[in-house]
Write a structure and sequence with these properties.
TIM Barrel, nine-stranded parallel sheet, alpha/beta, 284 residues, 11 helices
């Protein structure tokens, strides 16, 4: 059985400094129309707010996905320029529209997971607080996680399990399409039921590749042969043709290509039971 799990990292819900960077990049390329677009505030719709659009598309195909919500707490430090992109434009989980969207997705078959903040990969207290805050909105435990920027060290998976997560899907590449270190099938790094689902497709590496569709077909074959799960990660903000030309169509093609091969689509938590050791505790 070919299995595919669609996922979305919700890093940003509103466009901020990208008005300036988008303007500058477009101007340097001589694209005056695009430059003017990036300097024009949205009138009807926030360009990075696409949760309901993605849900509607997935619903039209009869599939569901996992949304990983980020609760970033880094503040901008002018003496540390690296904090700028992390701190500027972050959102508050407790904004009414964020809470409403999270509850809507949860009530209608989508999964909500924790997108661990940039510094939480080795900070149990911080990640635990992020998990608790999201759970307070949902009213039930959150079982899955992915770390922001795929940050990890030797303590990360132990921390995840101690906090009550049953799976993580941070094992992947920020630079290439495909599986890292030959790890294709979900695995148990702690020798327990805690399971890691390798991520093989992420928009930032997938979209620039000239041979992305050949690689995608090959990944579907590889996953099918190995009784694995193809984990796809498209950040929710890229589902906007003007901001990210071609990304929406590519995401649709990813779904359609797998459906033609009779793939089973489900949020990651739905595949957990298949891969976790049967003698261990299962999520409720």
């Amino acid at each position: 059985m070919l299995r595919v799990s669609l996922t979305h990292d919700v890093d940003r819900t509103r466009k901020t400094y990208q008005y300036l960077t988008g303007f500058a990049k477009s101007l340097m390329k001589g694209k005056i129309g695009d430059a003017l677009y990036h300097m024009t505030p949205p009138i009807k719709k926030e360009p990075y707010w696409n949760i309901y659009d993605i849900a509607a598309l997935e619903d039209s195909y009869g599939v569901r996905s996992t949304f990983f919500m980020l609760d970033e707490s880094i503040r901008f430090n002018p003496f540390k320029p690296s904090t700028f992109a992390l701190a500027v434009g972050r959102y508050d989980l407790f904004e009414p529209k964020i809470q409403e969207a999270v509850r809507y997705l949860d009530a209608n078959g989508w999964e909500i997971g924790v997108h661990g903040s940039f510094l939480s990969y080795n900070n149990k207290e911080l990640l635990g607080r992020e998990k608790q805050r999201l759970e307070s909105i949902l009213g039930h435990p959150v079982k899955g996680t992915r770390q922001h920027h795929l940050n990890m060290d030797d303590t990360t998976w132990k921390i995840h399990e101690e906090l009550g997560f049953v799976y993580d899907t941070s094992w992947g590449s920020n630079y290439d399409i495909g599986f890292v270190d030959g790890k294709i099938k979900p695995f148990q790094p702690n020798g327990t039921a805690f399971t890691v689902f390798p991520m093989a497709v992420m928009d930032v590496t997938f979209m620039p590749a000239a041979d992305k569709w050949e690689q995608y077909e090959a990944l579907l074959d590889e996953v099918d042969r190995n009784d694995a799960v193809l984990v796809v990660n498209f950040h929710h903000r890229v589902y906007n043709d003007r901001e990210y030309p071609g990304y929406k169509a590519a995401y649709q093609r990813i779904i359609e290509t797998a459906l033609k091969r009779n793939a089973e689509f489900a949020p990651l938590i739905r595949f957990y039971d298949h891969y976790a050791p049967k003698q261990s505790n299962q999520p409720s």
